Amino acid sequence: MPVQKILLYPHPILKKMCHPVAAIDRSITGLLQDLLDTMHAGPGSVGVAAPQIGVTLRVCVVDVSASRNGKENNHGLLQMINPEITKRQGAAIMREGCMSVPDYTGDVERATEITIRFMDGDGIHHEIEASGFEAVAIQHEMDHLDGMLFLDRIASLKTGLFRRKSYK
């Protein structure tokens, strides 16, 4: 499948609440492949959500296994349909970036441990516990499904938002 164009802030689709997936069919498996191809093509990308490519469905992919921050603690590639966080613990502030906001990064407070339920592309239900960078990446992508960007979670735009020096 082809790499898709990433919508950039302030595109209105990025602020929309996404719809649950009713059934897994070819369009959903194709969407998952598009998300994977787009994630792998993005510089340093560890996840992409459907609204970032213009689709308002609750679908996202995350894979932190190749990232220096997630190498030691991850579940590999997660293809998540209708994901739901059922438990959150801890809190930490981490610097986040986003392909939809390519010129900035920001300090965002997120839960350090989460439990999440989702369905994969084969319709199999999963419940996993994620922590550290993987938990942050999952929460970031799930925010997209709720029409939120990391910009919406920065406590102070004056002190917590930074112009990106380079996008690698």
TrEMBL record:
Q: Which SUPFAM superfamilies match?
A: Peptide deformylase
Q: What class of enzyme is it?
A: hydrolase
Q: Can you state which reaction this protein catalyses?
A: N-terminal N-formyl-L-methionyl-[peptide] + H2O = N-terminal L-methionyl-[peptide] + formate
Pfam families in alphabetical order: Pep_deformylase
Q: Where are the transmembrane segments?
A: none
Which GO terms fall under molecular function for this chain's record? metal ion binding; peptide deformylase activity
Q: Which UniProt keywords apply?
A: Hydrolase, Iron, Metal-binding, Protein biosynthesis
GO terms, biological process = translation
Q: How is its cofactor bound, per UniProt?
A: Binds 1 Fe(2+) ion.
What family is it from? Belongs to the polypeptide deformylase family.
Residues the entry annotates as binding Fe cation = C98, H140, H144
Domain of life of the organism in this record? Bacteria
Q: Indicate what this protein is called per its UniProt record.
A: Peptide deformylase
What organism does the UniProt record list as the source? Geotalea uraniireducens (strain Rf4)
**InterPro entries xref list:** Peptide_deformylase, Peptide_deformylase_sf
> Which metal ions or organic cofactors does this protein require, according to UniProt?
Fe(2+)
User: What are the catalytic residues?
Assistant: E141
Q: Does Metal-binding appear among the keywords?
A: yes
